[in-house]
Each structure stands twice: as structure tokens, then as C-alpha cells.
Amino acid sequence: MPNRVLIQNAHVVLPTGIKQVDVLIEGQKILGIDPPQNSPADEVIDATGLHLLPGVIDDQVHFREPGLEHKEDLHTGSLACAKGGITTFLEMPNTNPTTTTHEALEDKLHRASQKSVVNYGFYIGATGDNVDVLQQVTRTPGIKIFIGSSTGNLLVDEQEALERIFAETTLPICAHCEDETTVRANRDRLEGGKCIQDHSKIRDHAAALVATKRAIDLSIRHRHPFHVLHVSTADEVDFLKDRPEWVTAEACPHHLFFNIDDYDRLGTKIQMNPSIKTSADNQRIWEGLQQGIIEVIATDHAPHTLEEKAKPYPQSPSGLPAVENSLALMLDAVHRGVCSLEQVVSWMCAAPAKVWNIANKGAIKEGLDADLVLVDLKKSSTIRDADQLTKTGWSPWNGQTLTGSPVQTLVMGETVYRDGKVDSAKRGHEALYSR
Ligand code: DOR
After folding, report:
1. 71 within ligand 1 shell (Cβ under 6 A)
2. How far is 387 from 424, CA to CA, in rounded Å?
3. Could you tell me the residue range of the domain that residue 405 belongs to?
4. Rounded to whole angstroms, how far apart are CA atoms 390 and 358?
5. Per-residue confidence (pLDDT) for residue 148, from 0 to 100
6. Positions in the chain short of pLDDT 50
């Protein structure tokens, strides 16, 4: 008989609202919401004073394995996820080798099956000439295109290649949208960039908007499901108001919580692609979420070592670690009255499951996978570099005190994180995509 776990007395964030009910898990699945009194269980978790959420699905992380494991690997990245309440990650193809072939995809799936403590999926990367691969792969959430160069060399900028990818494939597509021509012209004008402030002038508002418009034009003409990754500008939010229903969008914590005024304090630690923008952009991205123009929050966790980040701009790499802080940052936003807990669950759990066709996850419902996170909305904690589980050992939010914290994470019915400690035995499974 599979193991039964009973979670008692939690305030449970159900699709119908927040209710204080018990939740019974059997094996890897949620067996019952509000089960009969005295249901037998092998383990009882007393969650008095806590809220129970579906596990977070982070649809954009970069875990660096294979090839750049000195920054992160699938084990350390997954440990950081477990601590942060993330029970499923979808990882990007800009590793070394890139995930642009069947073999590279199978290799990552095999590695994760040996090492990941949370559930996983891997995007297949588009190049200018791998449409045949994009047409045939199945064990993937979808296709990633870099319409705009970033870490790695996966840029696909030629119109003809983009037309083929949108016309001749059926998997959902997501893209990094920053217009290469605009970025290059800005870079030349600023002589390559002299200081971190120049990063937001090189990768400016126009670069983001031009590329997002271009990608959505392709998506509309080919009626192809499309997800705009990391929206960074108010202009894109305004433009996305009139998108068709098969276009979705994502925001990241760094574009909600940082802006160019933070460069003086944080320097290249917050160097990101797309670049961080102004406080007005922060505000409009929040509004975009509130208005349903942006449906998903994901981290774009992109670890680089502190040593690498300390190089003078523009030698410093773009990217920052975030998986172990994203849910806590959003719970703190709930505490400050910026959004509701139900909205956080919609943005971080339900919406990514819907966008990426993950039928068994993203909600607390009978029959779904028992991927769950218990959070303490009153717990105050300070983010410290020394406590970070990401291999890079730092956080751009170092020193920030937040109210609200994940305290226990269950993956497929088993506890992987509790009260500061991660059980590093492998628990994760491949996420399944229903088409
Ligand atoms: O700043 C970034 N760094 N943006 C990306 O999209 C990629 C990432 C990385 O992999 O380092």
C-alpha cells in the first residue's frame, strides 16, 4: 500500500478559494481534500498557522549542466528550488553543448533523473537549421528561441529561419525578445558601454519592444502558441493588451523589484538580459500582472560566480540567481498588500501549468500530483549569501528581510525540504506534457 500523508489544519489555497481543510496524499498523488475524519495515514503533518500552496512551477531557469557546472548543476539548482518552494523547473537550452538535438535533450533528461530532487523539463533550443529536430521531439515543454543574443550562442535573427520555425513546427514556442540590430547600434553609439548604467541604454526599451512585436507578428500570422519570456518594459505590457489568446507572457522578480536606480548599490550583480529598466516599468509590469496581461511569474535563474560578476562592465556576464528567493519575495509582496496569495498561486503555479500543458500540476485538486509547499505568511527571514544553496553562493537580495517564507516542500508526496534543511536524495520526475 502506498504511503499516506495527512496534512492537517492548513489554510489551503484551492482553485475555489482559501479554506481550512485537511489534505490527504497517497503515494505521489493528492487522494482527498477534506477527507473523512480518522482517515488512516502513515504520517501526519500538523500545519496549524500555515498555508498550503501547490508547488511552484518555474518555467524559466538556466542550470548550466552540461558544460558550465562551476556555476550550477542539476543537483544544486534543484536543491535551491526545493528550498524556494519550486517543485518543477523548466530549463533553458543554452548549456554546453546546447540542447538543440535529440541526443542533448535525452542526455539532460537522464542527468536530471539521477540528480534532481524536484520535477523537471527541458526546452529544445532552435538554431537556424534544426527544424527537423523541433518537429520530432516530444519529451519537452516546447521550443526556445533567442531572438536577441544572450549568454551562449543561440541567436536566431534571420527572418526566413524564424518564419520556418513558426510555420513548420507545432510545439509551443517561447522567446527571449531583444532586437539585435537595435542592441548593436546602441552598443556602437556607446562605444561598447563603459559602465553598468550603459547596459540599460544598450539593451533599451526599443530593443525589447521591437523584438516582442516581431515575435508576436510571427505568432499571429502562423497562429502558433507563443510565450513572451521576461517582459521588461511598460511598452511591451501596453502592446500585449491586444494580443490573441494563444499568446501569453511572463514577468521575472528582478523586473518587478529592481530598476536602474539600484545600479549604484548593486552594480553588475543586477546586470541581466533583458536589462532592468525604470521604476515606471516596474509599476506597469505589476499592473500587467494584476490586469491579466501577463499571466506567469518565473525567475530566469541565471547563475554566474561572484568572481565573474565582479569583472568590469562589459566583461561581466548577464544573469542572477533567484530560484530560492522568488516565492518568498512574492509572499512578502502579499504581506505588503501589493497582491493577494491567490494571485501568487495563479502566477507561479496554475498559469505555468496551463501555458506548458502540464495537466497533473499547478493546483491542489484530488488526483493531481502531490507537489505542495507549506508557507508561513508571518515568518520574517533575512536573505543571506551564506545561506544560499545555489552553487554560486550569492543572491542579489542579500541582506533583505522578508515577511513570508516557504517552510516545507513536498515533491510527488515526499518531503524534500523542511525548516531550513533539504533532503538531497533524488525525488524528481520528468514533467509530462499533454498535447
Ligand atoms: O541575463 C541573462 N542571462 N538572460 C538570459 O536570458 C540568459 C541568461 C544566462 O543564461 O546567463
Report:
1. no
2. 16
3. 4-52+368-382+400-422
4. 26
5. 80
6. none
